[in-house]
Amino acid sequence: MAALASLPLFFKPAGRRLVLAGASEGAGWKAELLAATGARLEIYAPDDVETPESMLRLTRLHPERVTLHRRSWRAEDLTGAMLAVGDFAGEDEARQFAQAARAAGAPVNCVDRPALCDFQFGSIVNRSPLVVGISTDGAAPVFGQAVRARIETLLPETFRRWAEAARRWRAEVQARRWPFRTRRRFWERFTAQAFAAPGQEPDERLRDALLADAEASDQAAAKGMVNLVGAGPGDPELLTLRAVRLLQSADVILYDDLIAPGTLDFARREARLIHVGKRGHKPSCTQDDINAQLVRLAGEGLQVVRLKGGDPMIFGRAGEEIAALEAAGVPCAVTPGVTAASGAAAGMATSLTHRNAARRLQFITAHARNGALPEDLDWRALADPAATTVVYMGLATLEALAARLLAAGLDPQTPAALVARATLPDETIVHAPVAELAEKVRASDIAGPALVIIGHAVALGPKTTR
Ligand code: SAH
């Protein structure tokens, strides 16, 4: 986890003793905030200053739990306090208050004195029971306010009613003893409805419809299944919404070497993550072994996600996995992803097709079973000057490939590029005519995965080489 400037916690002070010292307008506002939690609030406001109207109003509104003491605080007032908040003109008094609070075991906040604060008040978006707290750790109040305004617009006032309904319905959903995924389906549908029609009243009719929908899905999903999911070329922002939803409802996720860091952050926290990378050529991770694992896990009734780089249906051996699942009678579905060629084209800002220069687009792999250049490629098609060729797994055999293409008649000056780690922060692009690309790549210390793109379309993109 990245460093946290502060730890957001949500306290539950209802019925508990909170101590507030001070009589400024700011203290009055804190009084309102603290009283809103249902706490027993003890206010110590010395009577040599005028007590803010907001404090007087609170004591009238909640005489049973808001008490105003017209005197300065004393150390013994802090006994049993869950939290202590003070607003003082003088540094000395603030320091004494903080010391007394800590001695009494109460976290303390002295307004506008960060050194005397165990906790800070964030800005709040209040759709209680849905509450959002925002803190910039004092670094950027204006920025924080803008963030708050954004969140306000995302969460209509009516979300309060939806959050209340969720709280009312929770026990009932829990009582059904559904498996996790069915409960999840209920809450996913609930959430989708809240966002689609926030103004709708979440009433008992809606609840019953959602319960019935989840019940039906429970019966359908009693059996496990496998979702082959494309994770895109690297940048997690290129995951599809469906991929994210499947990652969040999976029981187990089998993922490849190509899955970039950050992608698995979207997985359900409880999901089992199994790395089935083949790069190490470990005997435990053959394709047969992966197929068998998929069948076994789905057979246990689990929701299995097979997460693959790019698009699962492009050089991903999805065909073998689908065949094995079909043979075992395991239901399976596919979620497409952004293939590496699309990611690379985006990074180069270059269209892979062009009405004059590239009427055909071909994807090939330059990596045969034995790791060498495949012999059975269609060299004539690859030498076609009106085509764009995208080469997957082509880094190791780039030199041999280029030699074969030239021998097949491709113009040595045909524009080409190598795109490494497309869509990732360290994406690298090397441009050179096809005859010179291998040498230029060798000189530039490239880390894979990388694609090669060959054809006149490459030259029609922006001229700058990154
Ligand atoms: N199913 C994947 C391809 C798997 S084959 C897809 O649709 O993209 C693995 C090859 O894909 C790598 O050797 C490399 O050529 C290419 N590749 C995958 N991710 C890449 C990336 N981020 N940048 C460049 N090439 C990538």
TrEMBL record:
Pfam families: NAD_binding_7, TP_methylase
Enzyme Commission number(s) of this protein: 1.3.1.76, 2.1.1.107, 4.99.1.4
InterPro entries reported for this sequence: 4pyrrol_Mease (IPR000878), 4pyrrol_Methylase_sf (IPR035996), 4pyrrole_Mease_sub1 (IPR014777), 4pyrrole_Mease_sub2 (IPR014776), CobA/CysG_C (IPR006366), NAD(P)-bd_dom_sf (IPR036291), Siro_Cobalamin_biosynth (IPR050161), Sirohaem_synth (IPR012409)
Gene from which the chain derives: cysG
The entry's keywords: Cobalamin biosynthesis, Lyase, Methyltransferase, Multifunctional enzyme, NAD, Oxidoreductase, Porphyrin biosynthesis, S-adenosyl-L-methionine, Transferase
Protein name, per record: Siroheme synthase CysG
Catalytic reactions of this protein: precorrin-2 + NAD(+) = sirohydrochlorin + NADH + 2 H(+)
This protein's record includes keyword Methyltransferase: yes
